[in-house]
Amino acid sequence: KRSSFLPFFSNRCTMSAAEFAAAAKEALEAAVASETSRATHIKRAVKKEQFSDFNTDPVTLTRFIMLEADPDVHKRPSLAFILNAIATASKVIANGVQRAGVKNLYALQGETNISGDDQKALDVLANDVFINTLAATEKVSVMVTEENPEAIIIDGLAHARYAVVFDPLDGSSNIECNVSVGTIFGIYHQDEGSCATIHDVLQPGSKLVAAGYVLYSSAVVMVVSTNAHKGIYSFTLDPNFGEFIMTQRNMMIPDKPKEIYSINTGNSVLWDDATKKFIEHCNTQKKPYSGRYIGSMVSDVHRTLLYGGIFMYPADKKNAKGKLRLLYECNPMAYLVEKAGGMAVDGRRRILDLQPSTLHERSPIFIGCKRDVELILKFYEEMDKAAELPETKRTKE
Questions:
Q1: pLDDT digits over 338-397, tens only?
Q2: Which residues pair with 210 in a beta bridge?
Q3: Which of 137, 197, 234, 244 is most buried, most CB within 10 Å of its CB?
Q4: Residues belonging to the active site
Q5: Cα gap 10→251, rounded to integer Å
Q6: CA-CA distance, 134 to 97, in Å (whole number)?
Q7: CB-based contact 369:253 (threshold 8 Å)
Q8: Which own/partner pairs from 1-8 qualify as long-range (CB within 8 Å, at least 24 positions apart)?
Q9: Rounded (10°) angle between helices 297-307 and 331-339
């Protein structure tokens, strides 16, 4: 820069040649350093502006699993294989959901599953994809799915120490009207002495080592957690390069949850007194609760995790044991909601403490923020005490 040398040229007559050379060198170095700093600043500003719309350090599902999924580093590869297989299956199902109308995947197959629901082509596709991708890992020896009456036992895998339970397409009865649907899964670690039987999955939900769900909507979102984590993690499928990218770490139900209840009010005449009392309580507050019911457990629970409130599918006069399946619907969701700071009960007991006796056992469920679930427990306790009162009087007489 010419201005950097002006003082030296003006003082040339008072300097010796050596002094002038030294001063000129110093000025030149200062000018070069100044220009370099300015150029670097411009380069960084351009780079920041150029990549502002991109995550240059994405945490993919694979990276997350391999680094954080299991405190026992020897188990991480197996769990990584399984969760990556689930991610792959979910991408295939997401594609099927998006193309269901074009490919006529809404059509009924003419059969019903073990739960009595009519099977659609998309149900069968989702089920087949899950079974095949999990079997290909050679890490899973037992699978239980809503669509199969019996457990799937894979022989010849003595080294496989995991069992997976899943509902491949929750909410598929609403798929024609483009309502959000999802996949629910839970993973158990088998005991070392196990020989791959249904007893590997007939365990309380408290024994799960990982669980999650995938929501197929305007975005494809996978929410997952493992025993290595206190919270839950959300990954969104980036359609540009087909990877699940972490978008939320340590998701928690808000400290100040919204006043929202989610229940099928069409069954209100069949409810027990405790459920009726809770809904009456919600509707008579100074600021009444909002009613939000989608009819897809994945969608309703996802909203509950983000906003708070409660999702309910109680037992009633028509379904004395509830309608949702304990093993592959209630347990995985309860696992996630508890890790997010919420609660899940059947009205009287913690969902994760229930011991399943059959593969497709049903259970009532009340799941959401502590404020609302604790109130449900209180109303059930009051209902049970009121029911015992006449019997106590008769005993005294």
A1: 999 999 999 999 999 999 999 999 999 999 999 999 999 999 999 999 988 765 454 444
A2: 187, 226
A3: 244
A4: 117, 123, 146-147, 167, 169-170, 329
A5: 68
A6: 20
A7: yes
A8: 1/31, 1/34, 1/35, 4/28, 4/30, 4/31
A9: 10
